[in-house]
Amino acid sequence: MMQTDANLAFPSKRDTWLVLITWAGAGVEIMVGIILWLTNVPPLVKVLGSLVCFAGAVFMVWVLYGTYYVIMPDILIIRCGPFRFRVPLAEIEAVTPTRNPLSSPACSLDRFLIQYRQSRRRIMVSPLDKPGFLQALAARCPHLAVSGLQAVSKAPKAR
Which residue from 123, 61, 135 is spatially nearest to 92, judged by alpha carbons? Predict the structure, then answer.
């Protein structure tokens, strides 16, 4: 966890298998870009193909190392490379552990499922410091009650 003024930043946990797959994919992209220069293809294909390959490699590594979560006074900012998600803290209803493998701004399967906006929206995150993340979130969300590694709304659900 890093603290800047009133904001708390939490890097994403990174599973070793995901790091290896990402670097292998980036390596393949770079190799293809280099191979394009060594083959007998038109110059335009070399340039555009190499740019696409190198951009793909940079994108993969950016997502892997550019995934983190910032708890601000009233909003949770989730960064995943070039993507940014905003979750108003007042709308969070539950934070529960999950290992759901669906796509999300998380670099590990050791995740939290965050339900918000009357349980209609969900997003998964994988902070490296799960207890610290949950405690920091609960400190800014007085409507959440923490129990172990989960937090749920103190208010009963409206039907």
Answer: 123
Q: Answer yes or no: are the C-beta atoms of 130 and 108 closer than 8 Å.
A: no
pTM of the model: 0.86
Helix, coil or strand: residue 155: coil
The two structure tokens encoding residue 92: 């969070």
Amino acid at 29: E
Tokens 């294909």 belong to residue: 45
The amino acid sitting at 142 is P
pLDDT digits (tens, 9 = 90+) for 36-84: 999 999 999 999 999 999 999 999 999 999 999 999 999 999 999 999 9
List the structure tokens of 54.
Answer: 């190198």
Report which of 91, 97, 88 is spatially closest to residue 143, judged by C-alpha positions: 91
